[in-house]
Amino acid sequence: HTHTPKERHANMPATASPPPLLLAAALLLSAALLCSACPVPLPKQTADNSPRLQRAYVALQALKRAITDDPKNLTGNWCGPDVCAYFGVFCAPSLDDPCARAVAGVDLNHGDLAGTLPFELGHLTDLAVLHLNSNRFAGGLPDSLPKLSLLHELDVSNNLLSGGFPQHILCLPNVKYVDIRFNNLCGPVPPAIFDKKIDALFINDNHFDFELPENFGNSPASVIVLANLRLRGCIPASVGRMGATLNELVMLNSGIRSCIPPEIGWLRELTVLDVSFNQLQGTLPESMAGMHALEQLDVAHNELAGHIPEGICALPRLANFTYSYNYFCGEPERCMALRRNDDRQNCIAGRPDQRPADQCLAFLHRPPVHCDGHGCLAQH
Fold first, then answer.
1. How many domains does the chain have?
2. Which parts of the chain span the membrane according to its record (predicted)?
């Protein structure tokens, strides 16, 4: 798939996920160490002598049959009972029996595989990591997904998945990393996803159409990417409740039409905030001067106006501040000292590359924007 620069930004947040193999090893080996070691040496375990690996064999063979195109021949050695030797399959001692080997990870990222995801994947009940990104899997996630009660990471991004939001994700008790971006999923996103104890949530670049719920701020995630969606309504005031955990919030090109709520300033741990290419109105809240961890701030291509608060440009870690293509009429001199700032196409007197005077005058003669105390456009 080829993506625009903005899409690539949404696809590659500043906080990258750990390398899959290292992550799988860390997760599974650390968990295995909590169990006592197997007291007696055992013969090599395969699907022929292990019920767990027999179930895994059924699941993996079903997946192989469901793959209609394997241009890199990734599943070429998926033959025979030794499933732990299959390419992209990782085994470890099971959590409930240190003498039993189990399939704990499947990583077929960047395989360009075409096909569907079969119901039999539910037999992989010991799975902690499922990485299938950058393939051509179509259809939806299997109804058996809730059987993967140990699943920690789910990455099916950059595929051809369709249908509604995969509700089964809500039934995964241990999932911490959910990446379903760059698919063809549509419809509403259930508010319950923001109540789950997820650390990273990537749902961008789908066709989801929903309003951010009031419980949005309940999410304990450190990274949330909602770019290139169809959001309605406003940024809820509850966003301020994420102050202790949220590091990155990316909502570019999502159709948000509201003011920026003052509670945004409570995000004291936030390093990246991108709300560009929306229909944000009003002014930048003075409370944003309290976002002391902020390094990148992008509010470009909105309908923001007024003066840039000096406290924002005084933030100690702010290195990149982009506020071009708005209607700001003033900026502190301190903003010029930032490593990178972009103030083009505003209405700032004396600065180069600003909007024509008639555009600025026309904007000034618009009816004033009224927002309620939480940043939502007031209804008249």
1. 2
2. none
Q: Is the pLDDT of residue 19 over 60?
A: no
Structure tokens at 158: 């950059």
Q: Where are the alpha helices (DSSP H) in the chain?
A: 5-11, 20-34, 51-66, 310-313, 357-364
Report yes or no: 40 and 99 within 8 Å, Cβ to Cβ.
yes
Eight-state DSSP code of residue 211: E
Same domain? For 180 and 225 the reply is no
Closest CA to 371 of 292, 256, 276: 256
Domain with 297 in it: what CATH number?
3.80.10.10
> Chain-wide mean pLDDT for the chain?
90
Contacts 24+ apart (CB under 8 A), 13-17: 13/202, 13/223, 13/225, 13/248, 13/250, 13/272, 14/248, 14/271, 14/272, 14/296, 15/200, 15/222, 15/223, 15/247, 15/248, 17/153, 17/155, 17/177, 17/179, 17/200
d(Cα 32, Cα 23) in Å, to the nearest integer? 14
**Least confident segment among 255-264, 318-327, 362-371:** 362-371
- Contact 204/227 with Cβ under 8 angstroms? yes
Least confident of 36-50, 121-135, 292-306, 330-344: 36-50
Q: 224 with 366, same domain?
A: yes
- CA dist., res. 71 & res. 278, Å (int): 40
Domain membership of residue 29 (yes or no) is no
- Which tokens belong to 364? 């000034």
**Closest C-alpha to 57, from 25, 79, 32:** 79
d(CA 260, CA 368): 16
The phi and psi torsions of 328 (rounded to 5 degrees) equal: -65, 145
Q: What pTM value is reported for the model?
A: 0.90
